[in-house]
UniProtKB/TrEMBL annotation:
GO molecular function: calcium ion binding
Region (Disordered): 222-261
Keyword tags: Metal-binding, Repeat
Location of the EF-hand domain: 64-99, 146-181
Polar residues: bias regions: 239-249
Compositional bias (Basic and acidic residues): 251-261
Official protein name in the record: EF-hand domain-containing protein
Organism in which the protein naturally occurs: Allacma fusca
Superkingdom as given in the UniProt entry: Eukaryota
Metal-binding found in the keyword field: yes
Length: 261
């Protein structure tokens, strides 16, 4: 009996955590719970450290550039403890997969700002572009001059005040004028196909356990169910059986963009 009570307590805590994360991200409660299940499976063999994270990004989202993978890990690891916990996992995926333009601007700028001084210089642009272009061309000597040319083009497009540095304001203004400039300093977002494939399957691939109505409502409202075995779909627990579900994408989540820290 005590074991069952402990399991119920953990399920309740997990659900309420999912509800909180849903309010802070672009995911519904059901989707957050699926991401919790996915995370639990991923860390079953060990913690989500840099190496494990890179493997997941590579295999799931087709992100292959080593520099970008390390930088994306830095974005996800919000508390800088060299691990991605469950909350960081959900919040990071919210930006990576369903971010607003403003969130993407902050995300990409943080990725490119290697030294963290909130100014992008030619050396940082060269560093970000080098690996992905060499990977594509395969020959470093033939690519280096081309990279320098691309860096100059990027500087011309993004450096509004022509001081040789791209401030966050420069980058934000340029990208809002032309969103195609978002990844001008190197690809750091997953391909659209990988995103679509994941978003259309992850809730069925990683199914969370059902939550009984009586497990949730007494704690929140003081109401009790008289019929045992009542089952409620987790994402509908507080909306009534006939209510319409809102879109999982919200325009203004609570979580700030990493580029604006």
């Amino acid at each position: 009996m005590r074991e069952e009570d402990e399991r119920t307590r953990k399920q309740r805590q997990s659900y309420f955590k999912a509800e909180t994360l849903s309010r802070k991200t672009h995911f519904s409660i059901d989707e957050v719970r699926s991401l919790q299940v996915m995370y639990a499976e991923l860390i079953a063999m060990g913690k989500m450290d840099r190496l494990r994270f890179r493997e997941v990004m590579y295999s799931t989202f087709d992100i292959t550039d080593d520099v970008m993978l390390d930088r994306i890990f830095r974005v996800f690891d919000g508390n800088n403890d060299t691990l991605v916990d469950e909350t960081e996992w959900v919040q990071g995926l919210s930006t990576l997969l369903r971010g607003t333009l403003e969130e993407y601007i902050g995300f990409c700028y943080f990725i490119y700002d290697i030294n963290g001084d909130r100014l992008l210089g030619r050396d940082e642009l060269f560093f970000c572009l080098k690996n992905c272009l060499i990977r594509s061309a395969g020959i470093e000597e033939d690519v280096e001059e081309s990279i320098k040319d691309i860096v100059e083009i990027a500087m011309k497009k993004l450096d509004a005040d022509k001081n040789g540095k791209i401030s966050f304001s420069d980058f934000e203004t340029a990208v809002k004028d032309d969103p195609l400039l978002l990844e001008a300093c190197g690809p750091c977002l997953p391909p659209a196909k990988a995103v679509n494939d994941f978003l259309t399957t992850f809730t069925t691939t990683y199914k969370p356990p059902k939550i009984s109505l009586r497990m949730i409502l007494p704690k929140r409202t003081g109401l009790h169910t008289s019929r045992p075995g009542n089952q409620l779909h987790a994402g509908s627990a507080f909306h009534g059986s006939n209510s319409q579900r809102s879109s999982p994408v919200r325009k203004s989540p609570d979580r700030k963009s990493p580029g604006k820290h």
